[in-house]
User: What shape does this take?
Amino acid sequence: MTPERWHRVKELFESALERAPEERSAFLDHACDGDESLRNEVKSLLASYEEGESFMERPAVAPAAETLAGSQGGSLVGQTVRHYQVTHEIGSGGMGEVYLAHDTRLGRRVALKLLPSYLSKDEDRLRRFEQEARAASALNHPNVCVIHEVGETEEGRHYIAMEYVDGETLRQHMVNGRIELNEVLDIAIQIASGLAAAHAVGVVHRDIKPENIMLRSDAYVKVLDFGLAKLTEKLSSESAAGSKALVHT
Assistant: This one.
């Protein structure tokens, strides 16, 4: 695949992700304009994404993007990002790398999510990255992952410091064995409670799936990854000034 072809595939893939799943097929019909090969390439990436992508898992699109765009600059394990001492990598995905880090100011563990360096100048990706922090920071609910801070490294990489959830994804839990009905209901109720709180402040997640649900050992459920959340007019109008300040914290 030529760099030009990859750029077009990547562009359509990211545009499709901005839309609800049920809208993607019609979007590709129009955007690909009869080019079935192009449509199939984008559909293949979307299928890989839907099968398991979250910020804890690496999608098929990431390696190709890195090959064409260049190195991300290596692992940050052992380094310090502002006041966060990075201890090890948790995972990576299309929207960034996630590390376990120690907050040296407050003495707590955090999950540190960084936008890949080669995407720091990509206005669309940067907007989506900041949108995740903006959406989640508007929420204060025990079933939603807490955002602690948004900032920028000295090298110009944008990051989100968020609550570290020690546990497993719902997908991993499902693979490990049969889940009893009582537990299924408890998980569903907690997910619904977190989403109801999000809807109350004008946030629609749009990407709820087992990979974006974390289960703690104490049975608490956390909804993660608001990178594709759709901010409604209510949130946009009420928090525009506050979110601008947050992003520049």
